[in-house]
Automatic annotation (TrEMBL):
Any single Pfam family the record assigns to this protein: Amidohydro_1
Domain Amidohydrolase-related: residue ranges: 50-403
Source superkingdom: Archaea
Source species: Natrinema salifodinae
Protein name as it appears in the record: Cytosine/adenosine deaminase
Keywords from the named record: Hydrolase
PANTHER family: AMIDOHYDROLASE-RELATED DOMAIN-CONTAINING PROTEIN, AMINOHYDROLASE SSNA-RELATED
Length: 432
């Protein structure tokens, strides 16, 4: 494939923005970026577009899709109430077919919005074993890249948590090789829903399999309060005492982490999945990303299952960090695009393959039709973050193949299956 790009936002180490270039992809890999347009009649014509790397969503919950529009009467006044009154009821009502269809529907949405890779955590305790097979099936019906896990929790019993750990290992060892673009990892829901023995077992399995563990860390104050009550110290210190950081860890949220805890995360090479839209929606607070960056912690961005438009998630990050400082110049807007591309790829351990447009990386691109205003190299990343939306995505390209076009939709996704997504959601509403 050859792509003619009017403006190419590379997100390489120099954060280069190039104009009027051709990008050549062979066998899914970028082999050359050269000045000037190719005359090849089969070249993808993005001469009037801004081309960015495929977006990377480093923390999502695809099983949240059926909850949209659900007639739920609960009115939680805290993060913990939202878990108890809404989310835990939903995930216990899930079937394996719900898992498959919610994954399919979410992947379609992500591709439409320019997301080419994601990291998902699925929670459905009544679908064990086999839950991740259903999720992987749904993902594999689309051409997206996915890192999936079962969200281990002992909230009902320790046995249920060990079943969750076993599900992750079973998928990684026995089923993952059946898929080209779906891989497994491990996930602990939180420290407050998993005792010491579950944490240690998860670390042992993950390190044996050389896979990361994702955890929701200090998203709400309940995590802090329960850790102090149970262990006499805050969550990061408690986890450190348990040897949790012997594994490769992706810590989602970290809203209430103190400066000292953030320093511990940095010392242990923990990566952070920042979820600004979700944190705003759940009213839990604003993560101290400034301190995280000071400690050299890799930061990526996720939607936490809330918003299929990653551009809105980027803009939310910009808004909350400016507001926190009461300074309209207090946050560099281009940083949000970094988090949504190379940053998230780094968090997921995939930055050697995706997240930027440069030779040797996979040919994952998004072409954006941003309208009539001129695009200048020095302001292109800012233009993307401030003005783009999923509606502006004209193409999503993975491994040099066009997998979504605005005029045609996502390639190879069956309409009957998409109709089934909505029907399954309506059935779920009846059960909850």
């Amino acid at each position: 494939m050859i792509l003619n790009a009017g403006t190419l936002v590379t997100m390489n180490d120099e954060r280069e923005v190039r104009e009027e270039v051709q990008v050549t992809v062979e066998n899914g890999e970028i082999v050359e970026i050269a000045d000037g347009y190719a005359s090849d009649p089969d070249a993808v014509d993005a001469r009037d577009d801004v081309v960015i790397p495929g977006l990377v969503n480093c923390h999502t919950h695809m099983y949240a899709l059926p909850l949209r529009g659900a007639p739920i009467s609960a009115s939680p006044r805290s993060f913990y109430e939202a878990l108890v009154d809404i989310w835990w009821k939903v995930d216990e009502a899930f079937t394996t077919e719900d898992a498959r269809l919610s994954a399919l529907g979410s992947c379609k949405e992500m591709l439409e919005g320019g997301v080419t890779a994601f990291c998902d955590n699925y929670s459905g305790p009544n679908t064990l074993p086999g839950a991740l097979d259903a999720v992987a099936e749904g993902v594999a019906e689309t051409p997206i890249r996915g890192l999936i896990a079962f969200e281990t929790t002992a909230r009902n019993s320790p046995d249920e948590a060990f079943d969750g750990i076993e599900e992750n290992q079973r998928f990684v060892r026995d089923r993952e090789n059946e898929y080209d673009r779906v891989t497994g990892h491990y996930c602990l829901h939180t420290l407050f829903t998993n005792p010491d023995e579950v944490v240690r077992e998860c670390v042992a399995r993950a390190t044996d399999d050389d896979r990361p563990i994702q955890i929701h860390l200090e998203e709400g104050l309940v995590d802090v309060h329960e850790s102090i009550r149970e262990y006499g110290e805050r969550p990061v210190h408690a986890l450190e005492s348990m040897g949790f950081f012997d594994a490769d860890v992706i810590a989602a949220h970290c809203v209430h982490a103190t400066d000292e805890e953030i320093e511990v995360l940095g010392e242990n090479d923990v990566a952070v999945a920042h979820n600004p839209y979700s944190n705003t929606n759940n009213a839990v607070g604003i993560a101290n990303v400034e301190k995280m960056r000071e400690e050299g912690i890799p930061i990526g961005i996720g939607d936490d299952g809330w918003d299929p438009d990653m551009f809105e998630t980027m803009r939310t990050a910009v808004g909350i960090h400016k507001l926190k400082k009461n300074d309209p110049s207090g946050f560099d807007m281009a940083t949000a695009l970094e988090w949504a591309t190379i940053g998230s790829a780094t968090v997921m351990g995939m930055d050697d393959r995706i997240g930027s447009i440069e030779a040797g990386k996979r040919g994952d691109f998004v072409t954006l039709d941003l309208g009539p205003n001129p695009v200048r190299p020095e302001s292109a990343p800012y233009y993307v973050v401030s003005a783009a939306s999923r509606a502006d995505v004209s193409r999503t390209i993975i491994d040099g193949d066009i997998v979504y076009e605005r005029s045609e939709g996502v390639h190879a996704v069956d309409d009957a299956e998409l109709n089934a997504v909505g029907a399954a959601s309506a059935d779920l509403w009846e059960r909850i």
